[in-house]
Amino acid sequence: MSWSGGTYTKGNNVSGGWVGDASVGIGIEAGRHDTQDNDFATGINTCLTKDGQNAATADLPMGGFKHTNVANATGRTNYAAVGQVQDGDYIWLGTTAGTATAMTASATPAITAYKAGQKFRMIIGAGLGSTGSVATAATININSIGAKNIVNNEDSTNPTLGTWVAAALMELIYDGTNFRITNDPGGWLTYTPTFTPVSGSISAGTLFRASYRKRGKSMEINIYRTFNTTTVGASIAVSLPVNCAVTLNSYITPIATFYASAGASSIAINAAATSLTCFPAHGVATWGSFSSQAIEIVTSYESV
């Protein structure tokens, strides 16, 4: 009879076992012994061995109990220990390698395919911050499965300079086509803007501060520079680190106001957004001729 409903019953149980046989005059018979021994073998072979020599042939209900003192999983077909899940072992890629526009990374255990909903976290490797004053495609290739684009979360557009910076922690979720950035891996970066006279001329001066920070599509800039003018009413164009995406009409504090139009690489007053053009404002009619002036720009705009 062997196992039934989770209970093992020996084959001659119906006759009362060997004692029952003896009580009705049945002696020791080879055939009956073989039947009983075969029944034992069937019952034993139905059991799982603790040393892993055989395998389950159906789902194993645990009856509300759990496996304890389990080892950490090392393959995709192992079940995970709670500690591994809490520690984020399976979504941690370590530090990325490759190039700024083609990063590589490895998950452990290795994934074999991308699947919508997959989440990964990583540290951006040295020199691998995003690049481009215009939207520039950048990819990541995990476990050599294939390169997939890394895009902005809100609109799946390509990144630009400042979208992520080296040494930042970045989190990505695969949407079935691209990896979307789900955190803010940017940071303040410095750059060297150009100051070009639009009308009149400028000379000398010192650049004290020029930095920017990108959060998603929003670009913040902070610039302070002194200069001398040689023309009353001069205006100055200041280059931007990343292109402007939409027309702007905003203030540069505390000295100048700028107006800008959408364009390829900067903010300008009337043309493509290659720079922001600054004029005296806030009660100052003109910048005086041959006098020391200063311009401070603290503003934000929507980047490409």
* CATH architecture type of the largest domain: Sandwich
- The total count of helices amounts to 3
Which percent range fits the helix content?
under 10%
The top-level CATH class of the largest domain is: Mainly Beta
Cα Rg: 36 Å
Largest beta-sheet details: 8 strands, mixed
Number of self-contained structural domains: 3
Low-pLDDT stretches are 248-274, 279-290
- Alpha-carbon distance between the termini? 75 Å
Please provide the count of β strands.
Answer: 20
Strand content: 25-35%
Strand order of the largest sheet: 3-6-9-10-8-7-5-4
Predict the CATH topology of the largest domain: Immunoglobulin-like
Structural class given helices, strands, pairing? mainly beta
Describe what you observe in this structure.
The protein is mostly beta strands. The chain folds into three domains: 2-46; 86-181, no CATH class; 189-302, Immunoglobulin-like, CATH 2.60.40. The chain has helices at residues 17-23, 30-46, 82-87; strands at 2-4, 7-9, 92-95, 97-99, 102-105, 119-123, 139-142, 147-151, 169-174, 179-181, 189-190, 195-199, 202-203, 207-215, 218-229, 235-239, 248-252, 256-260, 275-280, 292-302. Strands 3-6-9-10-8-7-5-4 form an eight-stranded mixed β-sheet, with no helix packed on it. Strands 11, 13, 14, 15 and 20 form a five-stranded antiparallel β-sheet that branches. A five-stranded antiparallel β-sheet has the order 12-16-19-18-17, with no helix packed on it. The longest helix is centred in the N-terminal third of the chain and has 17 residues, at 30-46. It is rod-shaped. The termini are far apart.
